[in-house]
Task: inverse folding
């Protein structure tokens, strides 16, 4: 668990803060502060996601999401963190988007652990969806 915590502190949190710097403040938050964040642990329930030799993506994504939540609550106590799921249940794609809207969230992070048949592949990939693509995002949801 300590290894996971270090990976989040040195990987996900700086990435999150970097993305926050590109964030356009929501109406009413012209100061640019993010007050509410939705964390989505990908897959879940009947949808295992990528299957490893000893793990399932849904379990890893949930563990990382919970640890990220705990670290953010510790380091940023004024930030409200909402989880799309905190147990092994499936949340429909459109409902994940509804969490953001229903909670009036300023920021959304969806955590996945992709796989590759290339054993040399490693690292992370990050996708950002800007306001310029809002119509496309709504079609996905």
Result:
């Amino acid at each position: 668990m300590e290894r996971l915590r270090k990976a989040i502190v040195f990987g996900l949190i700086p990435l999150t803060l970097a993305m926050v710097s590109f964030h356009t403040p929501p109406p009413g938050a012209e100061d640019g502060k993010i007050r509410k964040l939705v964390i989505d642990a990908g897959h879940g329930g009947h949808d295992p996601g990528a299957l490893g030799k000893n793990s399932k993506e849904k379990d890893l994504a949930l563990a990382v999401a919970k640890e990220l939540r705990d670290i953010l609550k510790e380091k940023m106590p004024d930030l409200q963190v909402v989880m799309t799921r905190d147990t092994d249940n499936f949340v429909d794609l459109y409902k994940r988007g509804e969490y953001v809207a229903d909670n009036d969230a300023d920021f959304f992070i969806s955590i996945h652990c992709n796989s590759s048949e290339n054993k040399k592949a490693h690292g992370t990939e990050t996708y950002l969806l800007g306001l310029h693509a809002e119509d496309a995002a709504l079609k996905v949801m």
Observations:
- The two ends are 33 Å apart (CA to CA).
- Residues 116 and 122 are 9 Å apart (CA to CA).
